[in-house]
Write a structure and sequence with these properties.
Layout (H helix, E strand, L loop, with lengths): L1 H11 L11 H6 L8 H8 L4 H6 L4 H16 L8 H8 L4 H35 L3 H9 L1 H5 L4 H5 L17 H14 L5 H16 L4 H19 L5 H15 L4 H11 L1
Keywords: Repeat
Protein name: PP4R1 phosphatase
GO molecular function, one term: protein phosphatase regulator activity
Length: about 270
């Protein structure tokens, strides 16, 4: 009986209103496709209706967010217009769990949509997640390399200025956040030029090498060693020479034994 009443509610609820400037008829046409039965898609899109969350399931928006990449893959890139409004609604949902779910899958959605749609529709959402709660930011951080490698070189360089912000967390004891940053920076070395690595990634790496938590420092030693290799292979030798001189000055000649030990570990 309970299920029947729920199904009756779902089938009779056709309020799919949005803040769009389109008329209801134009709005309906913008979400028409021929891959799956239209009624099925309409019911999926209605999951973001606030009244649905109050009367059917408080977790329904989270389930909708979790399934969205699969729905996008099924409908195909050509039908993204059917999902765009729903995605933006979920990305600004009041529940951080909903935004977190999208943050963990935004790199998968970028692969499905391709570079043009990603640049136009996903990058603004990605930028919003970067300034969100740590529970949401960790989602984009864990797949930072996967997302940035899909962007155009010029667009990718814009994020160099924001990488430093990952060193700041809501809770300073959240060391796993910094450890994940070090892991991602190792992967990001392949995406940037020698000058960008020296100017932007090097200061972050040195900061992580002096972290209070040993697990973060260990990953950072690997990061610095990979940085040396990358700069050594570059056409301009001055970057690697300057980096190694800085390593000697900061760590090898450090008055603290821990600093000198850091130098040994990096060499190892």
């Amino acid at each position: 009986q309970s299920m029947d009443s729920t199904l009756h509610y779902i089938h009779n609820d056709s309020d799919l209103s949005t803040n769009s400037s389109f008329s209801p008829e134009e709005e309906r046409k913008s979400k028409v496709q021929d891959v799956v039965p239209q009624d099925l898609l309409d019911q999926y899109l209605s999951m973001t209706d606030p009244s649905r969350a109050q009367t059917v399931d408080t977790e329904i928006a989270k389930h909708c967010a979790y399934s969205l990449p699969g729905v996008a893959l099924t409908l195909g890139r050509q039908n993204w217009h059917c999902l765009k409004d729903t995605y933006e609604t979920l990305a600004s949902d009041m529940q951080w769990k909903v935004r977190r779910t999208l943050a963990f899958s935004i790199h998968e959605l970028a692969v499905i949509l391709g570079d043009q749609l990603t640049a136009g529709d996903l990058v603004p959402v990605f930028n919003g997640f970067l300034k969100d709660l740590d529970e949401v930011r960790i989602g984009v951080l864990k797949h930072l390399h996967d997302f940035l490698k899909l962007l155009h070189v010029d667009k990718r360089r814009e994020y160099l200025y924001q990488l430093q912000e990952f060193l700041v967390t809501d809770n300073s004891r959240n060391w796993r956040f910094r450890a994940e940053l070090a892991e991602q920076l190792i992967l990001l070395l392949d995406l940037y030029s020698a000058r960008d690595i020296y100017d932007y990634l090097r200061p972050i790496a040195f900061s992580l090498c002096a972290d209070k938590v040993s697990s973060v420092r260990w990953i950072s030693y690997k990061l610095v060693s990979e940085m040396v290799k990358k700069l050594f292979m570059a056409s301009t030798p001055t970057f690697v020479v300057d980096l190694m001189n800085e390593l000697v000055e900061k760590f090898c000649r450090c008055h603290k034994w821990s600093g000198r030990q850091t130098f040994v570990f990096i060499c190892q």
